[in-house]
Design goal:
- Helices cover 48% and strands 13% of the residues.
- The protein is of the alpha+beta class.
- α1 packs across α2 (43-53).
Amino acid sequence: MTTCPRCHLTWGRSDEEHNLFFGVIGMAFDNWPEAHVFKPHSAEHLRGWLLIEAQHFDTLTLAHDTTPSHAVAIGAFFTEGKTHFDVTHDKFGRPIIRRPKTIKKGECKIREFRIVAAKVYDIIAVETGLTPEIYKKEQGKAA
């Protein structure tokens, strides 16, 4: 969190908000429904999928004649091999690679983070029944 040198007020995402976001996703990963069509292999993979589902992504439109195998190779390059991505198509049938946008503290504004986090929490609640409140309650039991 950043502190204003003039008025000494703080702004930005708190460590609590940050930890809650990653903690809820971790709990969702541990409780992800086996029958779900999306099969995350890690909490990070799930986070990427959730960010795309929450409409927090960048796109790269490919040429119409791009083969599926080339689209996947380009997607791995586009995401630097670090995050989940998917390939869909635009209304003209061109392949589009979607990758999650960053949520790094210094790069994602607090208002944007809070909007995205709320959408992610809503998706998790629908898919697993888990909420940030349940996560906090479970953390309280573990302490």
